[in-house]
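wait is this the right file?? whatever heres the structure
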């Protein structure tokens, strides 16, 4: 246990690197770090949650730590700049804003971001450098405080850069297939609505048919999708220590804290209090 703790203490919180086909990613990067990547040229293809994807020149890529990644392949001309941020350090500094939940859930499903112009690309690379520079400035009298603030500014600036892409994809989903519209509605309403009937009514179909369509498109029923998104929101809110459990239950429109506790026990296997205790 002491050896493991020593390894964790020696692991840098911020890593800034230039990548090519020859260098590749650091060993075990996906285990410990959230990955921010700007692709300058060429491309990188990969399996993400069993879906084939490719990030090409001029695009931004974000992977959460412990993402389901497989079969990473680089083109010959591949060149990219990456910023790796230690997962606990980033999670502890996510600003307490409701938009953060939408941003996190959106990125879990759509890791590749389209950058609109050169100013956005410059902003991304500048933010990489600023955060890494603050991490290296260990002589600063208020090192930890400044680094934490820069991490929060980094996150807010990234959200600003990707807001247009996020809104564009939302509009696309709203005009898409029944399955796509269902997924969008779940993202929008699952803080308060966790029954298939609610979404089926909005889409003017029966719950049975909605479950069928979801199963056909994704291998997962509508009720399972609702539970997945609700579970992710619960985890995000429980990780926010500025909210107590009663406040989270209220935010998610549960009729009582005890009902919320039973639901969390069902989806996480432990109670909210037990989950919080594991964060200590």
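ok assuming it is, sequence goes like this
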């Amino acid at each position: 246990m002491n050896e493991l703790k020593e390894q964790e203490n020696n692991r840098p919180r911020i890593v800034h690197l230039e990548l090519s086909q020859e260098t590749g990613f650091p060993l075990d990067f996906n285990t410990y770090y959230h990955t921010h990547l700007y692709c300058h040229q060429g491309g990188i293809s990969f399996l993400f949650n069993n879906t084939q994807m490719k990030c090409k020149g001029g695009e931004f890529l974000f992977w959460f730590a412990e993402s389901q990644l497989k079969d990473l392949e680089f083109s010959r001309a591949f060149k990219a700049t990456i910023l790796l941020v230690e997962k606990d350090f980033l999670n502890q500094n996510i600003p307490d804003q409701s938009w953060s939940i939408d941003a996190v859930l959106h990125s879990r499903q759509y890791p590749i971001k389209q950058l609109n112009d050169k100013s956005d690309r410059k902003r991304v690379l500048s933010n990489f450098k600023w955060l890494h520079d603050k991490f290296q400035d260990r002589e600063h009298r208020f090192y930890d405080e400044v680094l934490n603030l820069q991490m929060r500014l980094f996150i807010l600036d990234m959200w600003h850069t990707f807001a247009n892409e996020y809104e564009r994809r939302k509009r696309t989903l709203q005009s898409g297939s029944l399955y796509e519209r269902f997924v969008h509605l779940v993202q929008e309403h699952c803080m308060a609505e966790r029954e298939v009937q609610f979404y089926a009514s909005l889409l003017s179909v029966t719950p049975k048919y909605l479950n069928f369509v979801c199963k056909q498109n994704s291998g997962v029923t509508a009720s399972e999708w609702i539970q997945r998104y609700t579970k992710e929101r619960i985890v995000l809110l429980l990780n926010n220590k500025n909210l107590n459990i009663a406040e989270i239950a209220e935010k998610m429109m549960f009729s009582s804290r005890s009902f919320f506790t039973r639901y969390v026990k069902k989806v996480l296997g432990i109670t909210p209090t037990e989950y919080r205790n594991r964060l200590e």
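The chain has 13 helices and eight strands. so i think its the right one actually
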